[in-house]
Records
---
Amino acid sequence: MSSFSDRLVEAVRRCCNPVLVGLDPRWESLPESIRSGVSSRPADRADAFRRFCFEVIDVVAGRVPAVKPQAAFFEQLGPAGFAALGEVVAYAKDRGLLVILDGKRNDIGSTAAAYADGWLGHSPDFPWRADALTVSPYLGDDSLRPFFETAQQRSAGVFVLVKTSNPGGGMFQDLLIEGRPLYCYVADYVEQQAKATRGAEGYGLVGAVVGATYPEQLAQLRQHMPHAWILIPGYGSLGGTARDCAAGFDDRGLGALVNNSRGIIFAYERKPYCKRFDPLQWQRAVEAATDDMIAQLREHTSAVALCGPAEK
Amino acid sequence: MSSFSDRLVEAVRRCCNPVLVGLDPRWESLPESIRSGVSSRPADRADAFRRFCFEVIDVVAGRVPAVKPQAAFFEQLGPAGFAALGEVVAYAKDRGLLVILDGKRNDIGSTAAAYADGWLGHSPDFPWRADALTVSPYLGDDSLRPFFETAQQRSAGVFVLVKTSNPGGGMFQDLLIEGRPLYCYVADYVEQQAKATRGAEGYGLVGAVVGATYPEQLAQLRQHMPHAWILIPGYGSLGGTARDCAAGFDDRGLGALVNNSRGIIFAYERKPYCKRFDPLQWQRAVEAATDDMIAQLREHTSAVALCGPAEK
C-alpha cells in the first residue's frame, strides 16, 4: 500500500477538491427522521448515530476525499457508541473514503503505542482502524514518536495539533519563547518529522492541525512546514471562509484538507439550506452544502489547480 | 453527593494511604493463567482484560483509595475493549474504589462537553462513567472549561497534565516564557480553577498531573497549587521513589495520589516478587507490592500523618 500522504494526494486529485467532512453526530441536531422513535438508551442512540453517519457517507462518498469522525460524540454513548464508531469507520473505508479519526489522543511510550495500534492501519480483523489520527503534542517527542512509528509501519498518517481554531487556543499556544510562539516550536517538530517521512508527492506521514480562523498564521505555517499536510478546521460554523483557507495550499492545490462538520451534516437546519430543503430531505442539504463548499474552495484557493482551469 | 475532592480526602483517610493503582492491562505482561487458551480475537482478549482487572480490583479494594484504568489498552481492542473498560469502571466503583479514568482527553467546546458527559459522573444508566478524568491542556481555557463544568455538576474531578513523568515531557513543557517554563503557566491556571472550586477540605475539583521523576518541580508545584490534588505518575517502573514523592503532600498527608501501574499489577514478574511468588499466585504478588508501596510512602512521606504516628 502506498503511503498515507500519497493516498491523500491521489484521493484529493480524484475528487478534485480538498473537502473533509466531519462526522460529529450531536444528538440535538440530528434530523427528526433519524431521531423519531429512538429511546434515550445509549444503545438506541448509538444506532441512530450509525444510521445518520451511514447516510451522510452515502451522500459524500465519491464527492470528497475523506471524512473525519469525531470520537467524542460516540464515546459519549459508552460501549454502544464505540461500537457504532467502529462501524462508521469501516463503512466509510468500504465506500472508498479516507478516514481521519479525530481523537486528539496522547500519552507516553507503550501507552501511546497502544492508542496507535488501536486506531491506525488496515486489517480485516480490526475494521475500526482509521487511515489517520489526530494527536495532541503537550507530552513531547516520546509521546508522539510511537504514533509515527505505527503509522509508518501501516501506511497511515498522524495530524498533530499545532494552532487550533478555538478562541482560547492562544492561551498556551501563543505564549512567546524567545520571540516565537509555542505553536511554532510544535510546527518545527512536525516539519522535521514530515520531511523525514516524505513520499513520492513530497508530503510526509506527519501533518498539522491549523485553524482557518487564523489565516495569517496559516500562511506562515504553510511556508514553515512544506512537507506537512495541514488539516484546517474552523471553516463555516467557526467563522473561517474559503479565502481564509487559501494560504494553506501549495501551488498544485495540494497540502491542505479543509474540514466542515456541522455546516455540511446539519445543513438542513441552517441558512440557506433550511429554506431550500424540507427536513425530510436533509440528505439533499448535505449534498448541496458539500457542492457549495467545493465551489467556494475552487473559486478562492489554488484547489482549482486540481482539475485545471477548463473545468472551473 | 459530596465533592470529588472531599470524597478523595475521605477515601485516602479511610485507607490510610494515597496509593492509586493503575490498571494497564498490557497483553504481553498478563499472567499465563489469564492468557491461557485465549485466542487473538479482540473480543476474547477484551474478556481476558476484564477478568484480569476484576481480580486486581478484588485484591486492592479496601486497601487503596482509587484505581486508574488506562483507556488506551482497552481501546486497542476496539469496541470489545471499550465494553470491557466500561465493566471494569463499574466493577471498581461497586467495590468502593474511586475511579480516575486515564484518557488524557482534549477537544474544544461542545466536543469537549461530549467527552466530559461520556466519562464523568454517576448514573445507573451510564455505569462506565468515572469519578475523574485526566485531560491535556494544549487547546487552552475553552477546551478545559467544559470538563470542569460537567465535573462540577456531577461531583466529579479533572486532572490536567502539568509536568509529566516521561523523559521527553520537557520538549514543550520546559520551554521558558519570560523566565518561567510553560508548565508553570498551566499550573497557574489549574490553581486558579482549583481554588475557585475548593471543597470543605480545601481542595478543588481540578487537579494536576506532576511526575515523580521531577521531585524539585513537584515541590515547587505543590507550593504553587495549594488547592489542587496532584496525581503523581512515574513511581517504580519510571524511576520515581517514595522519597521523590514526599514533596507532593501537604502536612496532613493529603493532596497527592501516587500511581503505580506495572509495579503492582505485574509484580509477579518483577523483583523481588517473582522470587517469592509462583506466577499462579500473581494476585498475592499484587497484594504484597501494594502493601510494600503503602509502607514506603508511610515511611518517607507525610502520608504517615493519615493514621497517626501510633500506627506507623
---
Amino acid sequence: MSNPEQASILCEQIQADLGDLDPLTRKVLLQLPPPTPTDNRADVDRLRLALEHQVGPVTVPLALMSQIHQVCSVCGRVTATVSMTGWGWQLIDLEPGDTAQEHYGLAIDIGTTTVVVYLIDMSCGAVLRRAADFNGQVPLGEDILSRIRHAANPGGLAELQKTICDTLNRLIGRLCTPPLVPTRISAASIGANTTMVHLLLGLDPASLSRSPYIPVVNNPGILTAQDIGLHINPLAPVYCLPSVGSFIGGDIIAGVLVSEMDHREEISLFVDIGTNGEIVMGNREWLVACAGAAGPALEGGVTTHGMRAEPGAVDRVSLDPVTGVRYSTIGNAPARGICGSGLVDVLAELFLNGLIDRAARFSAGQRYFVVVPAAESASGQDIVVTQADIDNLMATKGAVNAALEVLLESVGCNWQDIRRFYAAGAFGQYLPLESAITIGLYPDLPRSAMVRLGNSSGEGARQVLMSQSKRREAEALAARITYFELNTNPTFMDKFKSSKFLPHTDIDRYPSVKARLQARRRRL
Amino acid sequence: MSNPEQASILCEQIQADLGDLDPLTRKVLLQLPPPTPTDNRADVDRLRLALEHQVGPVTVPLALMSQIHQVCSVCGRVTATVSMTGWGWQLIDLEPGDTAQEHYGLAIDIGTTTVVVYLIDMSCGAVLRRAADFNGQVPLGEDILSRIRHAANPGGLAELQKTICDTLNRLIGRLCTPPLVPTRISAASIGANTTMVHLLLGLDPASLSRSPYIPVVNNPGILTAQDIGLHINPLAPVYCLPSVGSFIGGDIIAGVLVSEMDHREEISLFVDIGTNGEIVMGNREWLVACAGAAGPALEGGVTTHGMRAEPGAVDRVSLDPVTGVRYSTIGNAPARGICGSGLVDVLAELFLNGLIDRAARFSAGQRYFVVVPAAESASGQDIVVTQADIDNLMATKGAVNAALEVLLESVGCNWQDIRRFYAAGAFGQYLPLESAITIGLYPDLPRSAMVRLGNSSGEGARQVLMSQSKRREAEALAARITYFELNTNPTFMDKFKSSKFLPHTDIDRYPSVKARLQARRRRL
C-alpha cells in the first residue's frame, strides 16, 4: 500500500474536464428588495420566492429560518447556497454579501487502508488542496473481513463509524486554513468500497460477508453531513458513489466512470488490485465484473521481507547479467524490505534473466534470491525473495488471470477482443507497467492503450460532486454492471490452477514478452 | 374564552367530506421478493424500487436504513409509510406485516389560550378522539403581546417553545391509548395564529409587533416532528397552515378554507372575534382582510364582574318586563360572574327593553343593572353590568363595525352586497346569535345565511392533513388575501367613533332588530 501522501497526489494527472458543471450545491447571489408597507411578505417567503425565480422549487429547513431573518434584516444583497435533494433544491446556507465565488466541496476517497480528502473549488471543479492519512479503523482490523468482524462486537459498529468520521474530520481540519472554516464547506462526495460505506453510515456490514451477500444499501442517495457526523455545513449534501453489491463498490464505479470505458465501442478491461482485486470488462453495450481476494503478496503481507510502500521499501529492481542487481528505495532510505512494486520487478527480472522458469520455479537447489545484500540493508541482513514469496505473487497473478478468463467466457469474448486496459488504485499507479506485463498480471497491449487511472476513486468522487450527469451515469453504471460470483463458479478453480505460468499458459497472448525473452536469450 | 374541553367538541358539527383523500402521509403495503443469488439487490434499494413502482420517486433517510435491513430480513410482507416532501415522497416508517389500516395523524389547533389536538384516522379522515387544555404558555404571558415580550427575555423564546411542545406532547399522550403509541402517529397539521406558529417553531416573534410587521415566515412548508420536538414519529411531516402576515394567521386561513367562501360568487363576511378580531370579506374573485385588538370585553377582562367561560359564569340572560331577569350559568353552578356571551345578551336585552338608548347609555341616574341578585350569587354580592362594562363592549362592537366599513370602502362594496356570514372560533360558537345581531356585532342577514364554523382552526387543520388540494388552496388563499392595515388607515378612527350606536348608526341595515324594537314598543 502506498503511503497516504503519495496516494493523495495521484488525482492531479487525470482531472477530466467535466464540461457543463452541475454540482451538488449551487451558490446564488440575490438582491432582496426591502420590505415595505405594501410588500410585507415574510423574510423566509421573500427569500424563497427570489430563489425560486432563479433555480425553481426550493424548500427551507427550519434550522435556517432564524438565520434568514437575521441576514435579511441587515442586508439586501445575500448569497444563498442550495443543495440538490431528490427532486428539487433545499436551502442550506445564507450569507450576507456576495460570496458566490467562495464555494467549497470535498471529494473523498475512503480506502480500507488509506483515506484521501480533496478540497474542491466548486465554482470551477479544481482541486485546491489535498490531505491523506491512514484510515483510523486500521487498528480495529487490518482488512475488510476483520472490520466486519469488529462491527459484530458490542459497540463495535459505532466505534468504527466514529473512527472513520474522526479521520475525515481531522483531514478536513487540515485542509481548512483561515479564513476558510469547515462549516463553510457545502458538499461532499465519497468513493469507497461497500464495506467502508456501510461503516461510514453506521450500517451493519454483517450481511456483506454472508451468503447471499446482500448489502443494506447500494445507493444511499443524497444524505447530509449531520446524518454522518462530518463537521462541515450540517446540511451539506453527502453523496456516496453507488455500489453494484457487496464486492463491487462505489470506488470501482468511480474508476469505471473516470475511465469512460462505458462510452466506447471497443472492449476495455479495468483492474484494481490491492488486498482484494476487482475486474470490470465491457463497453458501451455491456459491462461485467468480478472480485475476489488477490492475496497479500502486493501488500507486502506474508512475504519474507515484504513491507508496505513506506520509506526504506525497495520499490524498483532491475537485474542485468553484467551489472547485477540495481534497486531503489522509497525516500532513498536504507533498505528495510520489499514492497509490492519491487516484488513484481523482481519476479519479472528473474524470469527474463532465466533465473526462474515459466512455472516460476528457481533452478534446482536455489531457494532464494538476494535483492539487497546484508552490507547495504538497514538491518544488516540480506533482503531476499524466496520461492514462497514468488508462489504468493503467482497466486495473485493466477487469480487475476482466472477471473479474466471467467469473465471472457461469460460474455463469449476472446482475449484478443480487449483493446484497452485501465489500472486503477495506488497499485495501478505504482506497479511497474513492463514488469506487470512480463509476469502476466497485466495484458500485453499496445502501451498507448494502457492507462493508469491513479486515484480514480477520488477523481470519480470529484466528478460526481461537480456533475449531475456524472451522478446519473454512476447510478446507471451500478445498475448495469453484471456481477459474476467467482466462489461459486465451477470453472474458476480449474482456470486458477492452470494459470500459474509466466507470463501465461498461452505465451502468444504476450507478444512483447515473448520478443523480450527471445532478445535476452540471444544476448546470453 | 370557552373552557378547553368545550372547545374540543366543536369540530364534530362541521367535518366536511373531503372527496378524494390525498393525505400528508400514505401507507403502502408491499410484498418484497426475497433476495436470491441472481437478484442480490441491497435491502434498501429493493424496498425503494418496490415503493417507487407504486408511488413514484422516494428518498430513504439514513435513520431508517438499519430498520429496513432488519424488517426485510424477517418479512416479505411489509407496510411502508411515506411522507409527501417538497416534490416527492420520503420513507418515514417501515413495519412488518399489513398495517395499512392503522394510519394515524393529528389535527392541532393552537390558540393563544387553548390548545386542542384531534387524533385522525388517516385512512378515512375521521376524528377518532380529541383532547384539549390551556396553552401552557399562558402563565408566561396572557396575550400575544405579552408572549412576544417574554420571548425577548434571555432564554424566553426557548422556554415558550418548550412549553407549547410540552402541552402538545401531554395532549398527544392522552390521545394514545394502548396499543397506539405516539411514535406510530405519522403526520400532524397545525392551525394557529402567526405568533403561536413562530413560538412553536422557535422563531423570534419580535418583528411581528414592530413596524413594518414582517414575520420570519408565513409559509413554513412541511417540517418534521423532530424539528419541533413533537414526540410522534420523528420523521412525521408537520404542516402549519400558512399565514397572510403578522395579524392574519393560519387559524384564519383554516376558517376561510372551512367556510369555502372563496368558492362562491356571492360576497361573504368571515369574523373571528376574541381578544383580537380578524375579519375576512370576499368571494371567489377577491378577498380582503383586516385585524385588530377587539378589546377585552368578550374575554371577561376588565369588566366589573367579567370572567372567562368557566363554571359559574352567567352565559345566557333574558329580560322581560313581566317575568324579570332570567339567566343560566355554565355547569349550573352558583353565579360567580358574567362571560362574554352573557354580556352580549345583557346589552341586547337592555336595549330591546329600552333600559339603554341607541347610544347604549342608561337612563339618567341609573349606573348599573343587576343581573344576579346577591342572594343567588356565589359571593353573596350583586353581579352587575355597569355603564363602563357596556362602554367596553360597545368599543369592541364599534371596532368590528369600523373595520368592516374600511373593508367595504376599500373594495367599493356596500353592506347590502354581503350575502353570507361566518362566525369562527369559540366566541363564534357560543355567542348568542340574535343578541349579537341586536347589538350590531353581527350583520342582520337571513338566519339561513349565517353559519357558525365552530373550531374552524382545528377543522381546517384536519382538512389540510387529509388533502393536498386543500393544502394548495390554503397556500393560494394566504397569497391571495389582501391585508388592510387599520392602524395607519386615516378613516378608521372616524368610523370607529361614529359606529357606537345600537345596532348601527344606520338602523335600516338591521331590519329584524328594527322590527323587534317596534314590536316590543307596541307591547309596552
